Amino acid sequence: MSDRCNNEIHIVLVEPSHPGNIGATARAMKTMGLTSLILVRPARFPDPQADWRAAGATDVLDAAIVADDLSEAIGPCGLVVGTSTRTRRVPWPLVSPETLARNLSDGAAGGKPVAILFGRESSGLTNAELAMCQLHLQIPASPVYPSLNLAMAVQVVTYELYKTSNSATDILDWDREPATAAEIGGFIDHLQRTLEEVGFYDPRAPKQAMTRLRRLFGRIQMDETEVAMLRGVLTHVERSIRKSAADDF
Amino acid sequence: MSDRCNNEIHIVLVEPSHPGNIGATARAMKTMGLTSLILVRPARFPDPQADWRAAGATDVLDAAIVADDLSEAIGPCGLVVGTSTRTRRVPWPLVSPETLARNLSDGAAGGKPVAILFGRESSGLTNAELAMCQLHLQIPASPVYPSLNLAMAVQVVTYELYKTSNSATDILDWDREPATAAEIGGFIDHLQRTLEEVGFYDPRAPKQAMTRLRRLFGRIQMDETEVAMLRGVLTHVERSIRKSAADDF
User: pTM above the 0.90 mark?
Assistant: First the structure.
């Protein structure tokens, strides 16, 4: 058995409150052959309780990256996945741990790093954080009490990844590199500016339009060429408008 | 979804040392629809730390059975399964959590209760205890560090049981009707007209641009609202350009 396929998977805890959960996460990861832990604004870290709960995985804690900014932390990733227990008003492509594991071993991230985000113990990920993700991940659980502990959720997801990456793999091929989260974020910002410039708003759902567009372009798993091409389209739109406007003077 | 199939599964912890692990086990079980916990000679129980780690599953702790004798506790069971991380000198039928789940849902216990035994944090189950089991259960884990925390092991096993007993469910849902091929075709035509109007062409692949855009919007599986929204965007772009152009005259 090899842990090779999993080297590029980052487990990202967003604002964890309890250092014990950070330690337990490190241990859960290491048992499933993962070592890259990113902590976004942890309440307490490092902490003796984290070390204690990590048991034989303190090396994962020692190598953990502490970040202030989530979007910066996930910038280089080819696929960003957010765990979610709630049903949202704007539904998102939702996968089970099993399906995620299968997609990843089919090469969904095209060799680029993958980030799997886990939210706060009390309240999970915010809508804004979930909107940064291409996929939402939901662990099957009893409707009576679906509230898995944070580190337990990491254990279940990494277990599925480990299980799948150590069975036969089949690589889906594509002719271009997948776009990174930073490239997609840059495109979304550009799109928003252009939409403002053309005065676009959706009268049926003025606030939801941008969320829907973000979701649409998030789930498409665009490659680099596609993002570059769409930004080219936006630039042409801007130039056409500005040129015409400049002619007025 | 129903938790019905799982009512006859007992989770048995043999001589757990840390009350925190007992609480975390109760929580793990309840998230996967299980409620019957048997504790054989726990070091400390009840204990405030168990209650704290159980979170919303203190009812499982309250109903837990404390037993002095393992063989008595598992007496009524039709199938006894022992978790094990080590390879034994005397080989035993060894199953993965996935296989166990499939066997149980195929009726391996013949309608009788099932006991799944988890051993001590430090040393697992003894050879004598493992010899009381019909099956040994091993969780796939990294050979570098296969040491799952006790409650984590319970979480993974109960997750597999839950998943299999509720496998008919499909969690992907969507709020709108998918767009028809005609709607998507109409959008692609509209996009092409707009691109001509803004003078867009991709210098690196002038002929391929439209093919790539068609592929991109083809694989996205857009819903009706999304297509309508994107056409709204195109209409706004056209109006912005024409309005400025008209102003020239």
Answer: no
